[in-house]
Automatic annotation (TrEMBL):
Gene Ontology MF annotations: 3-oxo-5-alpha-steroid 4-dehydrogenase (NADP+) activity
UniProt record, GO biological process: androgen biosynthetic process; cell differentiation
Enzyme class: oxidoreductase
Record GO cellular component, one term: endoplasmic reticulum membrane
Protein name, per record: 3-oxo-5alpha-steroid 4-dehydrogenase (NADP(+))
Function (record text): Converts testosterone into 5-alpha-dihydrotestosterone and progesterone or corticosterone into their corresponding 5-alpha-3-oxosteroids. It plays a central role in sexual differentiation and androgen physiology.
Enzyme Commission number: 1.3.1.22
Length: 231
């Protein structure tokens, strides 16, 4: 048994020595997120004359998120960590497919009712939820960046905003964004995107929550992982 453990230990150490190709986090974020901005923008401009007001607004709010994610957020990152090439490629492919699905569906394939009006409680609720989530997300990202504004590369406990209640405030904000987007758009691609975003970010929030508790003895005991006062 001890021999097997030793072999596994050697294998693990060898794997750690393998140099995995990587990119700068700034450029990885910038390039991988671009398809989700450029492709819907293309559909928006090419079909602008034929789009209903609702379809136009759906594409606009989607592009607003990726305007921040692709052109602003990457160049505010203060982390010196790099992004593994395979992670970058998978993210790029996802953004490519998702950008096409959202753009094509909401400009060509979307069913438009005879009464296409924004004055609908469900749609208005979706828009409000989207911008609430976007505000939480941007604010939380800013709070995380400010933890390293003095150039310190060490990890600190985040405070302020929803970080006073949950460990994954940035993840929570982004999930709220896309849930609002799905409520507003009410289409299969929008609901699918919201669902898979939740499936991806909720576990990450829990992982971060666990990590904080393992590395900070004074981490707030009453702070939840993902949803304030719940989990």
């Amino acid at each position: 048994m001890s021999d097997k453990r030793s072999q596994l230990s050697y294998i693990f150490n060898d794997l750690q020595l393998i140099q995995v190709p990587s990119l700068s986090s700034k450029w990885a974020w910038f390039i991988q997120e671009l398809p989700s901005l450029c492709i819907p923008l293309y559909f928006l401009f090419v079909n602008f004359i034929n789009l209903t007001f609702t379809s136009t607004l759906i594409l606009v709010v989607f592009c607003l998120h990726y305007l921040n994610r692709a052109l602003i957020y990457p160049f505010l990152i203060k982390s010196v960590q790099s992004t593994p090439l395979h992670i970058f490629l998978l993210s790029f492919i996802f953004c490519l497919i998702n950008g096409y699905m959202q753009g094509a569906w909401h400009s060509h394939l979307m069913y438009i009712s005879v009464i296409d009006t924004l004055l609908c409680e469900v749609k208005l609720t979706g828009v409000l939820v989207f911008f609430t989530g976007m505000t939480i997300n941007i604010k939380s990202d800013s709070l995380l960046r400010n933890l390293r504004k003095d150039g310190n590369r060490g990890y600190k406990i985040p405070y302020g905003g929803l970080f006073n209640y949950i460990s994954g405030a940035n993840f929570f904000g982004e999930c709220v964004e896309w849930i609002g987007y799905a409520i507003f758009a009410r289409t299969l691609p929008a609901f699918a995107f919201a669902f898979f975003t939740l499936c991806n970010l909720a576990p990450r929030a829990y992982q971060h929550h666990t990590w904080y508790h393992e590395h900070f003895y004074n981490y707030p005991k009453d702070r939840k992982a993902f949803i304030p006062f719940v989990i």
